[in-house]
Write a structure and sequence with these properties.
Layout lengths: L3 E3 L1 H9 L3 E6 L9 H11 L5 E6 L4 H6 L7 E6 L2 E7 L4 H12 L1
Parallel strand pairs: 1-3, 2-3
Antiparallel strand pairs: 2-4, 4-5
């Protein structure tokens, strides 16, 4: 499974489509450099149970402002279009799994 590229146009449909994990990153943010491979792994691990997407903070400033993104990378978990969890800073795969298992149970 691949990670969806998110922007303002497809955002609402993405987060309302079921459990969805969105990551915000920026090319200039060194900790953000590890986010895409992490999300690729998580997307494969939770295939069929979770949609995973990646939003570029600089290319989608309206989204970053809407969700008050103040640190990068930021992961936000949505259920039914509502934010249910948020984590700021790069996490390892096990930590993301723990967050998702608790929220998706």
């Amino acid at each position: 499974m691949t990670v969806s590229r998110l922007d303002e146009q497809g955002w609402d449909a993405f987060v309302r489509s079921g459990p969805a994990l969105a990551g915000f990153w920026a090319a200039w943010s060194l900790p953000s450099q590890g986010l895409e491979p992490l999300l690729e792994a998580v997307a494969a691990d939770f295939h069929g149970r979770l949609r995973v997407g990646l939003a570029d903070h600089d290319a989608s400033p309206a989204l970053a402002e809407r969700y008050r993104i103040q640190g990068l990378p930021t992961l936000i978990l949505f259920k039914g279009g509502a934010e249910v969890q948020r984590r700021v800073g790069l996490m390892d795969r096990a930590a993301v799994h723990d967050m998702l298992r608790a929220a998706l149970a």
